[in-house]
Amino acid sequence: RVTDTMLHEIFETVGPVVSVKIVTAGVNYAFVEFADQRNAEQAIHDMNGRKIFNYEIRANWAQQSNNVAKEDTANHFHVFVGDIAPEITDEALVQAFSVFGSMSEAHVMWDPVSGKSRGFGFVAFRDKTDAEQAIATMNGEWLGSRAIRCNWATQKGQTATPAPQPGQQLPYEVVIHQTPAYVTSIYVGNLPPNVNQTELVQPFQRFGYVQEVKLQADRGFAFVKMDTHENAANAIVHLQNININGNTAKLSWGKDRPPPGWQNY
């Protein structure tokens, strides 16, 4: 059911796509070529594990230019780093966390449109002990002009679950537990009056299938309904404070009607 055109549209939300080729030979897979390596790196991070028509896709490098395969960090221990100063680069993040022996990857998340930092990033470790030490040591430490926040990026750690509030920059494992699993709607606030549905939907398509959009541009907000709770949580985490037509969008969970027979949350 997935076509070259569909994949092209999904991946182009990250950056300019040169070509897409789907191969159906026993196992279905595809090659997506980006014009810029940074967009390709971000696509691997954003798209790996996302669901298309309820099938989880795996995204990784097809081939390095030097013919050396890039290390697969999918099963490594990932740390969320928040409140990153705008001057901090991928290299600065690597340098700050490389003191913890088994660090395998570190990168800042960049806005593909403005080219500016989104103010958070991720660091991966092969060894869980190193990840734990990095969180304990680096949380609250100054990196550049800001004190950073560190926490688990996945459900390998536990943390208190604050109530949903637009604009909160929280890690995935917190966001996903803020509402019941049947909720897939996202509240998007602080929208400019000139935003249209196409502009609003585009960044959310990177995280799954957008089922429905209810846009109230004149009132400055919208509700975007995703296909799964997990994809909605990922969208809230990664698109929090995204720039939409000059405004900083504030995201939080929307409300959905519980399905029949759903137990009280």
Give the low-confidence spans: 63-69, 155-161
Number of strands: 16
CATH architecture of the largest domain: 2-Layer Sandwich
Globular, elongated, flat, extended or rod-shaped: what is the shape? globular
Helix/strand structural class: alpha+beta
Pfam families: RRM_1
GO molecular function: RNA binding
Keywords: RNA-binding
Domain RRM: 1-64, 77-155, 184-256
Describe this structure in words.
The chain is an alpha+beta fold and 265 residues long. The chain has three domains: 4-57, RRM (RNA recognition motif) domain (Alpha-Beta Plaits), CATH 3.30.70; 77-152, RRM (RNA recognition motif) domain (Alpha-Beta Plaits, 2-Layer Sandwich), CATH 3.30.70.330; 172-253, 2-Layer Sandwich (Alpha-Beta Plaits). The chain has seven helices and 16 strands. Strands 6-7-5-10 form a four-stranded antiparallel β-sheet, covered by helices on one side. It has a four-stranded antiparallel β-sheet with strand order 12-13-11-16, with helices on one face. The chain starts with a helix and ends in a 12-residue tail after the last strand. The model is unreliable at 63-69 and 155-161 (pLDDT under 50).
